[in-house]
Amino acid sequence: MKTAAQSLVQIPLARGLPVLGNALELANDVAGYLTAQYKQLGPVFRVRALQREMVVLAGVEANLFYAQEGKNLFRSRDFWQEQDEEFGAKRSLISMDGEDHVRLRKVQRPGYARSALLENLPTAISIITQEIAGWPLSQPLPALYSIQRIVTEQLSVIAANHSAKEDLDTIITAVRTILATRVTKQHPGVLRRLPGFRKAKARFMEIGGEVIASHSPSLREGKQPDLVDALLALHREDPDFLPASDMMTAVLGPFIAGLDTVASTTAFILYALLKYPDLAQQVTVEADELFANGLPDAAALRKMDVTHRVALEAMRLWSIAPALTRTTTQEVHFAGYTIPANTDVIIATTVPHHLAEYFPDPEQFDIERYSAERNEHRQPDAYAPFGLGPHTCLGQGLAEIQMTLVIATLFHFAELRLSPANYELGFDPVPTLSPDKNMRFTVTRLRHPIQS
Predict the structure, then answer these.
(1) Which overall architecture, per CATH, does domain 1-78+324-364 show?
(2) How many CA atoms lie within 13 Å of 320's alpha carbon, on the beta-carbon side?
(3) pTM of the predicted model as reported, rounded to 2 decimal places
(4) Rounded to whole angstroms, how far apart are CA atoms 388 and 347?
(5) How far is Cα 107 from Cα 124, in angstroms, rounded to an integer?
(6) What is the torsional sign of CA 400, 398, 70, 49?
(7) What is the pLDDT of residues 205-236, one digit of tens each?
(8) How far apart are CA 102 and CA 341, in angstroms?
(9) Three-state SS sequence of 300-356
(10) Cα–Cα distance between 336 and 66 in angstroms, integer?
(11) Domain boundaries in the chain?
(12) Helix or strand holding residue 443 (H, E)
């Protein structure tokens, strides 16, 4: 009988450095590195990062396998449990599996649905325009941070009825430190002992308490229920399923959700538009049509074809979640290999994004991939920017409409330029992929007046 060690030894091992293994490559360019190893080693291989070894499943065949079998053969708890512990929780939506995950996901779905944003379009647009109104003309502005201010405020106000604007720096410090030290392990845990983090985390937890207090039934009477209302209702209905100790991660979800996901992707979209003026011109035309009759509606947003295709290509080329990390629940058989139970596994979901057989000239930014004639993203299991399986991003629909709305509003009201004009995209991989701090833009003029 094969032992677990023998099973793993038979799986190809990616070459790496002594002690460090493949840590540097994985930290700097997860998608690029895993794609290169897939081409060399095939759909199953091992990587090492310091003292940790993981099995990688990659390619369209792995995506298909995970989409079909992920619910039964893999669990997510192990990867996320340290983040839960940081918030004093035993579990959260992202660390749950099975029927419990399905139940909590169902309760949270309306709060992260596109309808949550569409029903609050005036508020969402006002947040964008007021931010634009505060931008000085012809002075370089940090791209990612500027977008984070918009996206995080929209989500926190719409989903939690709480403004995050004054606490954004605190939230960034708390969330990024927890993710980088507890989840991705890109930074040492000693960072959590620093006074700056301890103060930021304490304030972040205070925010959660303030949100819960502001959602008492007496204060919410007659108001449209939001995500936090739904969570508190579930807690009152079944405190064993959602105890008070687990509430904090769920309640603070809107403050975390877009910080390094929607904001980073929107910043990548902004880069593409400012780098390719012909695309920017087409998006500006769409944006002006969107606002031609005043505030836009859902139907008008859905007609923004070029903007949508730019977003699809940005998510393909610069996926902020290039892979999933899971643990096998039982012995797994895939592509001729046996992976023992309780093995840490990387599902390299975005490797197909960079394969020429699915996306010709894959490193070229080309929105015609998504034309009716080509529809490359419709190839089965080749396009997965929001993940796969039971943990597919709950806010996918909201994220798509939010990014479209932010970009359209920016290009309708402001004329933007990269600063400097010859800036080439750089990356910050911690804790998730985002444009580096050197990406800046200037507002050369306001194209339309902004009303207070």
Answers:
(1) 2-Layer Sandwich (3.30)
(2) 26
(3) 0.96
(4) 9
(5) 23
(6) positive
(7) 999 999 999 999 999 999 999 999 999 999 99
(8) 23
(9) HHHCCHHHHHHHHHHHHHCCCCCCEEEEECCCEEECCEEECCCCEEEEECCHHHHCC
(10) 15
(11) 1-78+324-364
(12) strand 440-446
